[in-house]
């Protein structure tokens, strides 16, 4: 390793920050995947993996992908909840990796809600 | 950005190592792999979290959930329930002893809420063995600023204006020390770090070195620039293997990056650091003895002046700062003197790290703003005294310090205020004692330590401390005479006045401060041949008081020597010939019936 200059130091800081973001910074967007037994049964693990893929590709450090317990919406699993700073949480239902790609590209990246997949208020419970 | 969604910050300080964090790490890695989460969930070992009492501890990020006393058997449940399914495991949360409620989030736990992390700002956040993570937290940017943008005089001015005083015990203004050394004419100068932490019960320096070794290195580079030194040494005791190993890794990584060595950050400034392992003599924490030890001689102090700023290591101008002082420097340079001085009292600025130990619920490492009352440290952060016992005193400053009794618990953490009540800030050791502690015995313990550690160079310390110990032993054994108190006081004054170094000059402090606040205990030992705290074995009769005994049989059940005769509804009787005087019955009896 060659000797560092101050610019090198800044570069290292920037790349290390990505790794540190999860432990030291607050997220701007939280995406919660309901991982109850019903969720996992319906494919929540694949949804989770797809989300992590998309997050990785985006290179963004302000997104937190979280696992959460059963949300009581077992009939429409897998469900995810997207919470952006200052906005009402949005619940998406019956997710799969394809839909995740669309939701990520539109809602997470551009802030445009994909209304077609949003959980309708009346579908609760089984 | 990787696919990692959970980072488990596992405490890997010496405390948690001893409660099993290393085996836990292995179990976690295996279980995470087994459940197919290796791409998403990662374990990171950090330095001391501070909450050593409930180790092994871990912090799960980004949620900030704190788990305590985690065992290998808990791992499968933890991985399935929390990491896979998102249901945090409640039974591993911290339980508040006051209301028995479980608290999931670390920052909601009282132990943490009253603290302020400056020196320990990276604790639990970075892996101390990865230099990039330190850099990611602004690491080495203070060096960049000091070398590129500041003249040595500016650095000294900033440190002076910040008001930071030496954290090793004496509280000398760090900026002044640097100023004196900078004015000394010499082409060779040295920067030393004193990591010879020797007070019984103290572990501040060790934890800082284990948690954030680069902060200390960075502080040393800045100090070197300020006085124009090109070589530094860290004097650490060899009993600190983990701290030394992390320091070694840190020094090598810094050298590789050119942050130590020739032409640092391409600024033309040269500075390198070596570790010197001390054998663990208490006196080597004294600056002149420490320097002699590095020179390869027997660690003994010499008279001052000349002061190290003029003639120190190998007769060259030298500055010696404590670990905590040096670890504070980068933040002062980056954020400015005003930022630092904004916290604290009139004469004591910034924060102070304490190693809280003894008869206290939350044993651990704490950092508080100067000015925080001792009460807050002991009750709000420390969680009070275990087993509903009463607080008796807290020994501050180790064997060189003094005890602060209950009536002075409002005393704020401040160099002058603590001195007023007869103790010293010291390096931050705080040993809490409950009502069962005999203060004469406590003074005897510290005097035994001191006379053992006295280097023997000057007579007052060598002979005086031994005589003090003899008198204290005599009192504890019931052979004390009224005039012993006068002798103790007279001898103490003489030792303080005439000893060569700080060790001797402060050696009588435990005697003087216990005499100041607990003279009645000395008198009880001498006049009534009684130890009020029931700790001094020769003064105990090992008998059961018939009036106080509630006939519960607890002493009988717990006696390891079967020396206590008891039947239901009868008073217990201790059989003298079988009794091994182990004190178990004293500790078990809830009615204070054994004397």
What class, by secondary structure content of chain A? Answer: alpha+beta
Number of domain units of chain B:
5
User: What is the subunit arrangement here?
Assistant: heterodimer
For the sheet with most strands of chain B, the description reads:
5 strands, mixed
Q: How would you summarize this macromolecular structure in one to three sentences?
A:
The complex is a heterodimer of chains A (126) and B (595). By secondary structure, chain A is α+β, with helices and mostly antiparallel strands.
Task: Quickly list its features.
heterodimer; A: 126 residues; alpha+beta; Glutaredoxin; 4-stranded mixed β-sheet; 42% helix; 16% strand; B: 595 residues; alpha/beta; Rossmann fold; Ubiquitin-like (UB roll); 5 domains; 5-stranded mixed β-sheet; 23 helices; 39% helix; 15% strand; globular
């Amino acid at each position: 390793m060659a000797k560092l200059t101050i610019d090198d130091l800044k570069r290292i800081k920037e790349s290390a920050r990505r790794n540190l973001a999860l432990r030291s910074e607050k997220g701007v967007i939280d995406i919660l995947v309901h991982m109850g037994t019903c969720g996992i049964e319906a494919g929540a693990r694949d949804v989770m993996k797809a989300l992590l893929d998309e997050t990785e590709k985006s290179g963004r450090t302000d997104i937190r992908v979280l696992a959460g317990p059963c949300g009581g919406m077992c009939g429409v699993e897998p469900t995810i909840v997207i919470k952006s700073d200052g906005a009402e949480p949005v619940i998406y239902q019956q997710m799969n990796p394809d839909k995740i790609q669309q939701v990520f590209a539109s809602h997470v990246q551009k802030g445009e809600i994909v209304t077609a997949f949003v959980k309708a208020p009346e579908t609760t419970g089984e | 950005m990787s696919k990692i969604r959970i980072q488990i910050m596992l405490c890997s300080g010496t405390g948690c190592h001893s409660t099993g964090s290393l085996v836990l790490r292995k179990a976690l890695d295996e279980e995470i792999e087994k459940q197919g989460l290796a791409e998403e969930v990662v374990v990171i070992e950090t330095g001391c979290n501070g909450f050593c009492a409930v180790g092994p501890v871990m912090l799960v990020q980004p949620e900030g959930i704190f788990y305590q006393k985690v065992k290998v058997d808990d791992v499968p449940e933890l991985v399935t329930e929390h990491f896979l399914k998102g249901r945090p495991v409640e039974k591993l949360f911290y339980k508040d002893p006051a209301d028995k409620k479980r608290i999931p989030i670390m920052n909601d736990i009282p132990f943490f809420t009253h603290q302020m992390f400056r020196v320990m700002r990276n604790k639990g956040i970075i892996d101390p063995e990865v230099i990039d993570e330190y850099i990611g937290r602004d690491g080495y940017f203070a060096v960049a600023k000091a070398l590129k943008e500041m003249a040595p005089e500016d650095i000294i001015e900033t440190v002076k204006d910040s008001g930071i005083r030496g954290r090793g015990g004496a509280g000398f203004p760090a900026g002044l020390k640097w100023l004196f050394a900078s004015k000394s004419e010499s082409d060779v100068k040295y920067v030393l770090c004193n990591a010879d932490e020797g007070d019984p019960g103290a572990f501040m320096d060790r934890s800082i070195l284990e948690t954030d070794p680069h902060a200390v290195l960075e502080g040393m580079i800045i100090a070197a620039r300020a006085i124009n030194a090109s070589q530094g040494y860290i004097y650490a005791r060899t009993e600190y293997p983990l701290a030394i190993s992390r320091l070694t890794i840190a020094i090598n990584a810094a050298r590789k990056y050119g942050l130590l060595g020739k032409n640092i950050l391409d600024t033309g400034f040269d500075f390198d650091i070596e570790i010197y392992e001390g054998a663990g003599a208490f006196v080597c924490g004294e600056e002149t003895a420490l320097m002699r030890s590095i020179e390869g001689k027997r660690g003994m102090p010499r008279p001052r002046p000349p002061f190290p700023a003029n003639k120190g290591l190998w007769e060259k101008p030298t500055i010696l700062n404590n670990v905590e002082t040096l670890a504070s420097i980068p933040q002062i340079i980056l954020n400015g003197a005003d930022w630092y001085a904004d916290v604290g009292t009139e004469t004591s600025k910034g924060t102070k790290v304490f190693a809280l130990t003894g008869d206290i619920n939350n044993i651990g490492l704490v950092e508080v703003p100067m000015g925080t009352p001792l009460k807050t440290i002991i009750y709000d952060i420390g969680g009070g005294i275990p087993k509903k016992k009463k607080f008796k005193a807290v020994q501050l400053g180790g064997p060189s310090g003094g005890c602060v009794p209950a009536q002075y618990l409002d005393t704020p953490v401040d160099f002058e205020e603590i001195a007023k009540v007869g103790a010293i800030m010291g390096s931050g050791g705080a040993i809490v004692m409950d009502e069962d502690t005999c203060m004469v015995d406590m003074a005897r313990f510290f005097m035994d330590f001191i006379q053992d550690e006295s280097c023997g160079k000057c007579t007052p310390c060598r002979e005086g401390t031994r005589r003090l110990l003899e008198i204290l032993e005599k009192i504890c054994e019931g052979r004390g005479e009224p005039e012993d108190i006068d002798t103790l006081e007279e001898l103490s004054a003489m030792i303080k006045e005439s000893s060569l170094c700080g060790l001797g000059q402060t050696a009588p402090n435990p005697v003087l401060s216990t005499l100041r606040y607990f003279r009645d205990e000395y008198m009880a030992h001498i006049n009534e041949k009684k130890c009020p705290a029931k700790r001094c074995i020769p003064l105990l009769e090992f008998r059961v008081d018939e009036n106080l005994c509630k006939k519960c049989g607890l002493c009988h059940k717990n006696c390891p020597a079967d020396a206590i005769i008891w039947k239901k509804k009868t008073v217990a009787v201790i059989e003298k010939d079988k009794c091994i005087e182990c004190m178990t019955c004293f500790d078990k009896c809830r009615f204070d019936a054994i004397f």
